[in-house]
Amino acid sequence: MDGDRGYSQVVQPEQWLRCQFDHTVLVPNEGVTLQWTDDTPKPVGPRGYTPAGLAFDRWCRAYRSRPDQGLVQVIPSGYNTSPSPGPGVLRRPLGVAIDDAQRLYIAESVANTVHVVDLVARRLLRKVPLQCQQPVDIAAKCCGVIVLLHNPIGLVVLEGRRGPKPGPELVAPDCTKGLVPQRIAMSKQGLLVLWRHPWTSRAVVSTVEGKILLEVPDATDLDVTADGTIVVARQTGQSLRRFSPVGKDWLELEPLGAPDYDGAAIAVAPTGRIAFTTPDGIGWTTGSTAVHDTDGALITYRLDSGVYRNRWGRLFLDGCIPTGAGLGVQFLTSDDDNAPDPEQLWSAQPMPLFRRPTGRETPWAQIAADDTFETYEAPVSAPPGRYLWIGLTFSGTHRVSPTVRAMRVERPGHQLLTQLPRIFSRDEGDADFLQRFLDPAEGLLHEMDMRAAQRAILLDPAATPQEALSWLAGFAGLVLDRRWPETARRQLIAEAYPLFSRRGTKAALTRILSIYLGYEPAIVERWQLRGPGGAVLGDRPGSRPAPAVGGAPPALGEFTLGVGGAEPTEDTFVQTAHQFTVLIPNTLTSEQLAVVKGILDDHRPAHTRYELCELGNGMRIGRQALVRLTAFVGPGAQFTPAVVGYTLVGGDGVVGVPAIGSTVGDTTVAGKVRVG
């Protein structure tokens, strides 16, 4: 078998963008699918709107400003809507934002003021007057915010207790006569500005320097997801449009439904979901509202094999073809550098694709369990030629469309014809038939040869197929627990030999638990808690006589010594030896608890006893809290900040319930604040 064949691939977005699209589009991180149109109605009524603010803190609580009522509504996590509260005292609060220090900034538009609220301490830090400039929107940036101002237009920066200071210069884009900046949002490209016309549908998204990125009619607000996708909201009743960066270009994703959107504000929650304002509170986006075309096509750019009269091999295509959708393929080859007429490509009947039951053609390659894409195969049915064009025909319904993520084609194909007598391949038609006839059998033999050549992969815990993990673990005498995550099982196999050379030690037991849990627990041996040594003078009534040196009674009265601070009659060896406590800085599920106990039973020394302690969301302060033993300083596996007045320390009482109006510096422990 020949093992020097290569592949021509169309995988990267830059490669797909070089193709010719016909009623098909490229979706970033997905692939090529049928083109769609938006299935939402046109805006009804006047195009004017009332902007508002929407932001989330780290606890997923939503803060939604209501300019007409003069307040900021707090909506707890887990609730989509909340009753409308009564009137507030703020004068038209528009934008809101929350920085990384969990400080809430409120732009009070009429009063030309920005309020800064500490959400952890639950108190107002300061009011920042902006003289005659009107704040209309706020965008969080690290431990501060950028405020968009009107009259005159500009940007200022606030950082907690510092500022305001001048922000970056805001440059109006070209050809934006009549547009004014309305909303801002932070992205990987920097600050984005939404410019819109007050009475028409025109709206553009630009950078601070004035470079126009997008033009979205009827846009009312924007935000940016963690992967850099720009989400643009439009008028009431319309879906949300999304744009993903691909190089220097922007590709539009399928729009998301936003039922009951009131046109005020949108925001990306810490969970990654997109929320929007409604008359009753907030709502969450639904699925795609796209209506796909039923037919489409795609022609690749010229694939170059580098060899004239090259006979191409098999095509491998990673795609998702749901029920009701179809995908066909056609080929065209040439030794001429000029591009052929597309009609030559579509003149032949499209070839069907064969789904490979063994998955990828790459030896030992594994497909993730949640991957909906499968590998399809088809022989290149075209005469020999240096260049190859591939045409794909898509078919589907308005809601269902096939998707192609990657294509790979062998170059050259198999060389079995060169090993047959020349008479079998002298005629071009006969050679073409034999090439395609031998493709399936040769492909199977070629893959078996490649698997044999790369069989060393089976001995690599990080690369071996999941089905071979138990077999590989058998070399180290391991019996894998299927309740362990796959990554943890692979890591245990990789470290089996150094771990088992130290089996029974504290370090080895800690490492095995760390591999399974994903974070490091602490093992505290009981002798570490026996305390300092001490002497107890005198005897208790009825206790045994104190020992006398040389048989003579003690000269200074009777006394006994207690080692380690224990009582004279207690044996510290029995109390502390061969005993340890495992501290888990988390809360375990019932399955995790069973697995951890199984690990301790199998890998601890047989003569030892242990206790298992789950610390939950943080440490507990008690009489035995020792730094680096039972107490951990810093965030744990489920660290959440303590809130004054709402956090129990030690389980016995509340620390710090401040009285109304108490401030730092004038509060005494005995006065306004109750400790415990």
Strand content: 25-35%
Largest sheet: 5 strands, antiparallel
CATH architecture term of the largest domain: 6 Propeller
> Separation of termini?
79 Å
The Cα radius of gyration reads 35 Å
Helix content: 10-25%
In the predicted model, the low-confidence regions spanning at least 5 consecutive residues are 533-540, 552-565, 620-624, 642-676
CATH topology term of the largest domain: Neuraminidase
DSSP summary, beta strand count: 44
Kindly provide the name of the CATH class of the largest domain.
Answer: Mainly Beta
Can you count the helices? 9
Give the overall form. flat
Global mean pLDDT: 80
Count of discrete structural domains:
5
Question: Your description of this structure?
Answer:
With 676 residues, this protein is mainly β. The longest helix has 26 residues, at 428-453. It is flat, with a radius of gyration of 35 Å. The chain starts with 5 loop residues before the first strand and ends with a strand. The model is unreliable at 533-540, 552-565, 620-624 and 642-676 (pLDDT under 50).
